[in-house]
Predict the structure.
Amino acid sequence: MFKTIEWTGDSVRMIDQTLLPSEEIYRTYHDFREVAEAIRSMVIRGAPAIGVAAAMGVALGVKKSSAETVPDLRRDFETIADVISKTRPTAVNLFWAVKRMRETFENVLAGSGSEAEKIAQARARLEEEAQRILAEDIAINEAMGRHGAALLQDGAMVLTHCNAGALATGGYGTALGVIRAAVADGKKIAVFADETRPFLQGARLTAWELAKDNIPVTVITDNMAGHFMQQSKIQAVIVGADRIASNGDVANKIGTYSVAVLAHENQIPFYVAAPLSTLDMDISSGDEIPIEERSPQEVTHWCGIPTAPENVEARHPAFDVTPHRYVTAIITERGVAREPYTENLKALFG
Ligand code: MRU
């Protein structure tokens, strides 16, 4: 099995998701700015994986910092956190991970010991914390799988959008983790993978990792989903999320909203699988979720080849918001939440 991301001791190694499925190449980064660039350019992507990469980027930056005093190290920490926080705005896991690393850092500095001891301890604790975030993420996905598997019937054809699999997380996946758990329970599950224009996470990544696991997968273009739903070929939809507001509104890959509306129209359950680190309890609705606008070049070109007339205007909002009324249930590591989400998510969140 491939490793989406790992800490090597003095660098961060990740599979280059821009090259899949044609090439399985691993990149090794020795500098936090390279990790930030890998997040921005989508060498690594998917909300939980972005969170892990952000944490490892912070640990790497602090480890490589030449600071010899606490104020200098704190100044370097702020620079590192700032550079990493400015990579992608929608996946809240990124900010969650940076906050967790900051808390670890501040706890060490508030503790006892000489300045040199605190600096050494901060480096070691941040390294440990980043690895803990990775290990926890995999365990959380497995727990989500256990909670969500019961929602998928034996023999179901499940539609997914984008990639919410092992590649989008520390491993196992959120939406694909639920599918993997249902398959492990002995259910026969097949998957329709939406191609997911314009970055093709469905065709390139979801199809690649499901095929590796021998889970039957059929790639369809995004505009075919309605047709197959109308023909009763799809029994459930399951997707991941980049940020969930406290009222249950879900930001996920552009096109998810259309899939949710189609599922509603065709009375097909629409499930979202996401860890609690994707829940943003500070915002009351999806209106407050920042939507990343990526380069129009990603819409007008593929692999540098134009697919639209030169200089034509194009837009590329990378995410959309699905109102909670279209969400049948949200699967988390602590259980499954349904309407009313404001109360039920709060109860799960603790
Ligand atoms: O732009 P991406 O590829 O980072 O977008 C990823 C998604 O939208 C995923 O569905 C989401 O992050 C959940 S991943 C478990």
